[in-house]
Write a structure and sequence with these properties.
The chain has 325 residues and is mostly helical. The chain contains 14 helices and two strands.
Length: 325
């Protein structure tokens, strides 16, 4: 990054760090949601933006991660830190199974995307029939007092959840920046651009695509654990639904697939505009089912028509940032 980019990044980091000192609980909740989608967008971006493997079923990893940690806490009193590792393990195994089936048998492109949707839908139906996890009636985590911070059980005021999500988003950004400049990043980009050419150069495409899927699944599992202990209630129809996957991938698509800051910018744009429309409609007493999905579609259409590479590459050029990431 050039000096201007470093200055802008430092100012953004400073603004995010001091935000809780000036923001209301409502603003904090919106900011936390932006960071959540920025983190999950980065996780999906590893798989699609870096390695070129389109997943439309990432809600699978959010849901499995959330239910694993929440179920252990609800039934056995195990805190989220214990459930986190099991959630990551299960999601890694699921990602490895999907990747193995797809890559070993030459399933790619739109068929790979359909395979990811199928796994998410099978899991949603299965969780609807698991009474131990609440079934279709949902699983509700017992909520303790939140005026004091309890890191062991991940309980506390809104600022605690905000800083936790900020740390995750910053960690994901740093990890992805390192990956892009590592051997894995170069191999992934080669596979994304031309897999046959990458194979001809001696790159083990099966191994590196599997790594991208597994890493993406592990990162998304972490977001699922956060989701469970932030919202305290889980429903299979809600968390495994394809609309959840669409929300995850829209940020990177609108911000800029394959870029570092695209998922962050896309998450901010979508969340702020969608929340603004919701508040505006509430102020006028208007209630239209599905208006958020229609809004997402319009934003996506506009970006594809006028900014096919996403918002971030164009914004980076306007800001004079040499590396448009």
């Amino acid at each position: 990054m050039n000096r201007r980019a470093q200055t802008l990044l430092a100012l953004l980091a400073l603004a995010l760090l001091v935000l809780p000192a000036f923001a209301s609980n409502y603003v904090m909740s919106v900011a936390t949601l932006i960071l959540f989608f920025a983190f999950t967008g980065q996780a999906w971006n590893v798989m699609m933006g870096f390695a070129g493997q389109l997943s439309l079923g990432h809600s699978l990893y959010v849901g499995v991660g959330a239910y694993t940690a929440a179920g252990l806490f609800f039934h056995y009193g195990l805190g989220p830190w214990a459930g986190l590792w099991l959630a990551i393990l299960l999601c890694v195994l699921l990602g490895a199974a999907i990747g193995f089936l797809a890559f070993r048998f030459g399933i790619s492109g739109v068929y790979f995307a359909l395979l990811t949707i199928a796994f998410a839908e099978f899991t949603r139906i299965g969780f609807d029939h698991i009474d131990w996890l609440g079934g279709p009636g949902g699983l509700f985590i017992k909520v303790a007092q939140r005026d004091q911070i309890d890191l062991l059980n991940f309980r506390g005021p809104p600022a605690m959840y905000y800083y936790a999500m900020l740390a995750l988003a910053a960690g994901a950004l740093a990890l992805c920046a390192w990956l892009l400049r590592s051997r894995a990043g170069y191999y992934w980009q080669a596979i994304r651009e031309d897999e046959e050419a990458a194979q001809a150069l001696g790159i083990n495409t099966f191994r590196w695509k599997m790594l991208a899927v597994i890493l993406s699944a592990a990162m998304t599992a972490v977001s699922g654990v956060f989701f469970a202990f932030y919202y305290n209630n889980l429903f299979p129809e809600q968390i495994f639904h394809i609309s959840r996957s669409i929300e995850i991938i829209l940020g990177p698509i609108i911000g800029g697939i394959g870029t570092l800051f695209g998922p962050i910018l896309g998450a901010a744009v979508l969340t702020l505009l969608a929340d603004g429309i919701t508040e505006l409609m509430s102020a006028f007493g208007i209630e239209i089912p599905g208006v958020k999905q229609v809004f997402y579609g319009i934003v996506l259409l506009v970006v594809i028509m006028f900014l096919p590479n996403g918002i971030w590459p164009t914004l980076a050029r306007r800001l004079g940032i040499a590396r448009q990431r």
